Amino acid sequence: MALICRVRNKAISIYRGSTNLAVNCLNINEGCTIAQQQQRCMSSQQVLKKTALHDFHVEHGAKMVDFAGWSMPVQYKDGLIAEHHQCRNHATLFDVSHMLQSRVVGKDGIKFIESLIVGDVAGLADDSGTLSLLMNDNGGIIDDLIVSKLGDGTLYVVLNAGCADKDKAHIEEKLNNFKSTGGDVEFQTIPNRSLLALQGPSMAKVLQAGVQFDLSTLTFMKTAVMDVFGIPECRVTRCGYTGEDGVEISVPDDKAVHLAECLLSTTEGDVKLAGLGARDSLRLEAGLCLYGNDIDMTTTPIEATLAWTIAKRRRQEANFPGAEIVLKQLKEKPSRKRVGVMSNGAPARAGTPILNEGGVQIGQLTSGCPSPTLKCNVAMGYIDTKYAKIGTEVKLQVRKKQQNAKISKMPFVAAKYYTKY
Fold it and tell me: Residue 415, SS3?
């Protein structure tokens, strides 16, 4: 039986046999046009970038794949499904060092970043962050990103790996324009830092054993600098991409292996390595968007049901890129909407047509995979708004057959973020 998942920027076919999983990865670079994808695929001489943990992954039996120009682990010996359950029930460690860590500094830093995104950064408490959207003038989404406002006025910004070059070019262009009018701001990438994500219900107990900081005070989207297992100056942010309680730890490259070894050898819980495959099925169960699949330059926050990212003050001021288009959609409703879809039978993946009961196409899936947690197929996609009501019966055109499906609430699996203490 072939289970097919979208793994960030790959299509993965997993053939489930009696004793093993065989994984076939196709290079599809996130955030790129089809022509760009084809051009990259034809370049067999491309040298992949490696994280500081690359050799560590190989030593631990990882299947390495090309992800946005990086050699990254898609799964380990136990397989994607075991890694998925490990995260839901215990804890998993992901290498997300390919993500672009950056900072915005200067007295006009907040004003500058707010000229690019929909979030209310000025309204954030110190040492806290928000998921926001980098916007174009047509109301489309250039990227999703996390912006944290630090106590010293610096902004810590984490961007998607597949969009790094595009994002940097866009930000630097806007930066030059902003500075030409007298703005005091600089955008800096943060070199020589790895990023490790520890995710799952055992996270807090495992990490607390290695820090003096009281993690019960570090709620969802809060960030702090602390020593972690003796490694000084680590930035720990309570967030993640799995729907579970978790943290992302920014650590010097030369200490990344030591940190990974400490977390994996803990006696405070069961921690195992997990790859991009499990990360994708986890995020899909959590109803989280994948840039390049579920959101892109042609989708607006309203169509993507991400209106909650547009802060009240920003709506009132209407001064973010594409505000006129986005706020009009917010008032009048868009013609299409991102929805969750559940089905049984053959799994439906990205590109699958969504049909009404009469067989007329009314939308298309953008992500989809079998849910290891729910034992059914889960997907998301865009559908004509009049069919978007939860519970609506639809059909999916999976290869040459139509199969029954239902519009479903997201997240498919309830989030377990640590929001208060």
Answer: coil
- H/E element, 330: helix 323-332
Q: How many helices and strands in the chain, by DSSP H and E?
A: 10, 23
Tokens of 349: 């993946």
Whether the pLDDT of residue 315 is over 60: the answer is yes
Statement: the pTM of the whole predicted model exceeds 0.85: yes
Output DSSP code: residue 145.
E
Each residue's pLDDT tens digit, 151-192 = 999 999 999 999 999 999 999 999 999 999 999 999 999 999
Residues 320-369 pLDDT 10s? 999 999 999 999 999 999 999 999 999 999 999 999 999 999 999 999 99
Tokens representing 38 are 């084809």
Query: CA dist 390 to 37, 366, 385, Å?
Result: 35, 18, 11
pLDDT of residue 23: 36
Render 28-85 in DSSP notation, one character per residue.
--TT--HHHHHHHHH-TTPPPEE-TTHHHHHHTT-EEEEETTEEEEEE-TT-HHHHHH
Mutual angle of helices 276-285 and 80-89, in 10-degree steps: 50
pLDDT tens sequence across 165-175: 999 999 999 99
What is the distance between the alpha carbons of residues 58 and 369, in angstroms, rounded to a whole number? 26
Beta strands in 191-335 (DSSP E): 193-199, 223-228, 231-237, 246-252, 271-273
Comparing CA positions, the residue from 383, 357, 372 lying closest to residue 412 is: 372
Rounded to 5, what percent of the chain is helix, strand, coil?
A: 25, 35, 40
Output b/e per residue, 141-179; b: 16+ Cβ within 10 A: bbbbbbbbbbeeeebbbbbbbbbbebbbebbeebbeebe
Whole-number Å distance between alpha carbons of 179 and 175: 6
